């Protein structure tokens, strides 16, 4: 009996690892592993406040979003040159290839870097070059999402939007991240209206630590094309109904939710309830270097915790493609590959 249960676990793990999938909620600065951080710090002659890699890893044990953001921003300080941003992005993309991620939509936080004197051009050139190389060398397609930091004033976001103008052809969507509570989407209504008018797609973090009202604001005031997180929508049936009616995808991040104590245990995670209510849910890793797992780890752990079926996994992988910003032909091609993989 125990043997059979173990066999089933292994079969499901292998299935998850092999199925083609997309990642739609990934902060590139959140993929910065301690080993690479030390390497780049040494290259740039920067002393870290940690004696070694293990000391830095221990510092990744934080208890809330603010503590995480503090170490996240500290890590970013070693990123100075174009090659640094390239190396960080490429390191994630090689992991993505190993995990059968065929498409990724990568978020970056330019204000984290421009506020400390790094040019917008340096940041985006390094990231874009790695994404372009991934398409030709690894077969991974991508979209780039520029996120505003919500703890900063809206005026700063307007400035960042202007800095992005020469690189508009490389940026597919505008997002909103950082500390959610106390910084509602309404704070950024004007700048997102301008971004929408410029032709950008719109995403925003809402309803992770913030209340379901933030999701409503993101829908009604920012006119988002997708909601990042959205867990707390279940607290308001009207919000759930609006999301279902408008077919708005949610980019849910299970291990992030656990690490930041949005849920006490993955057994309590709302993903299965979300699926049961016909919400358009996807699985993502958020900041995998800090939250204890890349995309497959998120699938594997949430599958075990909630006893998700093979059909659930197929649906979630399919949702990741349907919710992406790929065109219809590209989506259909990958969905066909998922179907073929699932039938073998």
Note down, in words, how this protein is organized.
- By secondary structure, the chain is α/β, with parallel strands linked by helices.
- The chain has one domain: TIM Barrel, CATH 3.20.20.140.
- Helices cover 53% and strands 14% of the residues.
- The protein has 17 helices and 8 strands.
- It has helices at residues 2-18, 34-43, 53-59, 65-76, 82-98, 110-114, 120-137, 154-164, 189-197, 212-220, 237-245, 254-259, 271-276, 288-291, 295-306, 310-322, 328-343, and strands at residues 21-27, 101-108, 141-149, 173-177, 201-206, 226-229, 249-252, 280-283.
- The protein has an 8-stranded parallel β-sheet.
- Strand 5, helix 10 and strand 6 (226-229) form a beta-alpha-beta unit.
- Helix 1 (2-18) packs antiparallel against helix 15 (295-306).
- The protein starts with a helix and ends with a helix.
- The mean pLDDT is 96.
